[in-house]
Design a protein that fits this description.
The chain is α+β, with helices and mostly antiparallel strands. The protein folds into two domains: about 170 residues, OmpA-like domain (60s Ribosomal Protein L30, Chain: A); about 100 residues, OB fold (Dihydrolipoamide Acetyltransferase, E2P), CATH 2.40.50.140. The chain contains eight helices and ten strands. It has a five-stranded mixed β-barrel with strand order 2-3-4-6-5. Strands 7-10-8-9 form a four-stranded mixed β-sheet, sandwiched between helices. A hairpin with a 2-residue loop joins strand 2 and strand 3.
Length: about 300
């Protein structure tokens, strides 16, 4: 592992990420509270009208960020949010595996905060009302499993996460008190987001080493080479970062509350010259940055 050279740019990125990290951890901490009593969750929509007065609406894709009774708020990749009403007629579908093995079927009770979903909607026709109503909600079993594990965590785990959240909020108050201790780069083929077996082993080694340092945090940033358009590369860099995040948490055991929000930087901040194949290969990467308190690091 080598120490990243462009500290000033990354510190600016960290300052932005810090705010998001603290807010998202606060939301995790309050997942088990009553949504109606939580001032941070505000979801309003009108009662569902007669189905005969509705027509097909737009598909809504994103992550459920709030749930209040029969309404969900979905946040899209562009940061926009959409409120969708859930009715008794709403169908919920998940990929085969988790529910099939248990002999059950998913329903609206499984629409938990943090699950990425695709929602087919209906909307009132001819001015009969306003708002969107879910006719069908699709999600992946793996995403539900993760959300359920968080939701059903033991009191001990919840207390541990609460304490870590408070500690993290305090530590992020001054990002300059942190050193970027080291950076592990994971490399990818052109246009791909598949982690090699060699890099998987390297990621778990990195997690083990970082875990031995008290209060060490991770910031994962995805990059691309110059091949492809701006939008494609932005999406690809985010996908690569997400793949690495998932592997670190699911296979290497890195705890989610010690992970800052992943970021995709597309072609920005290249390590090498994009005019050569060798340079492009170095730039198709995800940087796993280990942050350590200067007081712990002896600086």
């Amino acid at each position: 592992m080598g120490v990243i050279s462009k500290r000033s740019g990354l510190h600016l990125l960290l300052a932005t990420v810090a705010i998001t990290a603290s807010g998202s951890l606060y939301a995790q901490q309050n997942n088990n509270s009553d949504p109606a009593a939580n001032p941070n969750i505000i979801v309003n929509a009108a009662p569902a009208p007669d189905p005969s007065t509705m027509v097909a609406g737009p598909d809504v894709k994103g992550v459920i960020v709030a749930r209040n009774a029969d309404k969900i708020k979905v946040k899209g990749a562009d940061g926009s949010t959409t409120i969708v009403a859930i009715t008794q007629a709403t169908k919920v579908k998940a990929s085969s595996g988790l529910f099939a093995s248990k002999g059950g079927k998913p329903d609206t009770s499984h629409l938990l905060n943090g699950i990425p979903v695709t929602v087919k909607t209906l909307q009132p026709a001819n001015g009969a009302g306003s708002g969107l109503y879910a006719s069908q909600v699709n999600f992946k079993n793996s995403d539900l499993k993760t959300a359920t594990m968080i939701r059903n965590a033991t009191d001990q785990r919840f207390d541990e996460q609460t304490a870590a959240t408070e500690a993290l909020r305090g530590r992020m108050a001054d990002i300059d008190k942190y050193n970027i201790k080291s950076t592990t780069n994971v490399h990818f083929d052109t246009g791909k987001a598949v982690i090699s077996a060699e890099d998987k082993a390297q990621l778990c080694n990195t997690a083990t080493e970082a875990g031995a340092t008290e209060n060490a945090l991770m910031l994962v940033v995805g990059y691309t080479d110059s091949v492809g358009g701006e939008d494609f590369n932005q999406t690809l860099s985010e996908k690569r970062a997400a793949k690495v995040i998932n592997y670190l948490q699911q296979a290497c055991g890195w705890k989610p509350y010690r992970m800052l929000t992943p970021t995709g930087m597309a072609e920005a901040d290249p390590l090498a010259d994009n005019s050569t194949e060798e340079g492009k290969a170095q730039n198709r990467r995800v940087a796993v940055n280990i942050l350590v308190s200067k007081s712990v690091d002896g600086m």
